[in-house]
């Protein structure tokens, strides 16, 4: 390599210029997007970026920043550009093989923590684990082990990486399975949790371009987005301990339908929890 390395300040300014027109067309703050990209790829917080503008940026990191911006300009979500997402205060690796962890899903984990915080040696099943964010967070905040399943082997590779990244790889078992198909029939769980695909195919045209970059297998469901809830609810009782919980994340306006599905399948004490936008986001019930 020849020539002078660019400083953090120079890279930050260059990133902002590359992003400006694209972000202004979307009414996004291009300076903040540039700051987040540089911060995440350099593995330092945003304050350190501002305070250390004179420090040099290695050529490999500089190239990663340029590549990330190029990807962002092609309508990829920021998290895919930096390969980083944050969930329950934890860091996760993400790529196009997994759904990006969202704040909405934290409600599901918070409900589980509230229910099980005083119990030990718990055993959970996470259906459609994706990035592994639910399974990892459960292991970080509860005394438990988790069986995490997904139909996608590539998603499971990402989930394994995240378990190791967060130091819980010895407490999560990963299995490729289409819902319950390859789960041993003798296993019984304290809770079965799932953030399944729940967007109706008819809603596809309403989604932003960045959302459509996420794996469609993790987004869309037939029967108006309710198929996975019906499938999981109908079979989960075979795998739940007496008094065990089923805990779902649900989509906008799906809460009443999912409550009805659970009631029809014999679950009891059906409750809901709202997210920060006052939307019923988590439905949970007891195996009676």
UniProtKB/TrEMBL annotation:
Record domain Release factor glutamine methyltransferase N-terminal: where: 10-81
Enzyme class name: transferase
Gene: prmC
NCBIfam families assigned: hemK_fam, RF_mod_PrmC
Record-linked SUPFAM superfamilies: S-adenosyl-L-methionine-dependent methyltransferases
HAMAP family listed in its UniProt record: RF_methyltr_PrmC
Listed name of the protein: Release factor glutamine methyltransferase
Catalyzed chemical reaction(s): L-glutaminyl-[peptide chain release factor] + S-adenosyl-L-methionine = N(5)-methyl-L-glutaminyl-[peptide chain release factor] + S-adenosyl-L-homocysteine + H(+)
Molecular-function GO term, any one: peptide chain release factor N(5)-glutamine methyltransferase activity
UniProt function note: Methylates the class 1 translation termination release factors RF1/PrfA and RF2/PrfB on the glutamine residue of the universally conserved GGQ motif.
Listed EC numbers: 2.1.1.297
């Amino acid at each position: 390599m020849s020539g002078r390395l660019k400083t953090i300040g120079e890279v930050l300014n260059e990133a902002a210029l590359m992003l400006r027109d694209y972000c202004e067309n979307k009414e996004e703050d291009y300076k903040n997007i540039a700051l987040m990209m540089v911060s995440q790829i350099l593995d330092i917080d945003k304050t350190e970026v501002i305070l250390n503008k004179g420090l040099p940026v290695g050529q490999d990191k500089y190239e990663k920043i340029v590549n990330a911006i190029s990807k962002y300009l092609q309508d990829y979500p920021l998290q895919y550009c930096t390969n980083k997402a944050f969930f329950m205060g934890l860091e996760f690796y993400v790529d196009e093989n997994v759904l990006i962890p969202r704040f909405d899903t934290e409600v599901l984990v918070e409900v589980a923590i509230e229910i099980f915080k005083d119990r030990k040696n718990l055993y959970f099943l996470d259906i459609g684990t994706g990035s592994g964010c639910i399974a990892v967070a459960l292991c970080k905040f509860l005394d438990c082990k988790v069986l995490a399943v997904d139909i996608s082997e590539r998603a499971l590779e990402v989930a394994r990486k995240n378990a190791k990244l967060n130091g819980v790889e010895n407490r999560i078992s990963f299995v490729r399975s289409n819902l319950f198909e390859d789960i041993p029939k003798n296993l019984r769980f304290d809770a079965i949790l799932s953030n399944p695909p729940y967007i109706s195919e008819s809603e596809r045209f309403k989604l932003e371009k960045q959302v459509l970059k996420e794996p469609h297998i993790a987004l869309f469901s037939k029967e108006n987005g309710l198929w996975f809830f019906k499938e999981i609810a109908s079979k989960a009782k075979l795998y739940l301990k007496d008094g065990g919980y089923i805990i779902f994340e649900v989509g906008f306006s799906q809460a009443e339908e999912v409550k009805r599905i659970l009631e029809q399948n014999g679950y009891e004490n059906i409750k809901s929890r709202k997210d920060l936008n006052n939307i019923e986001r988590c439905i949970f019930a007891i195996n009676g």
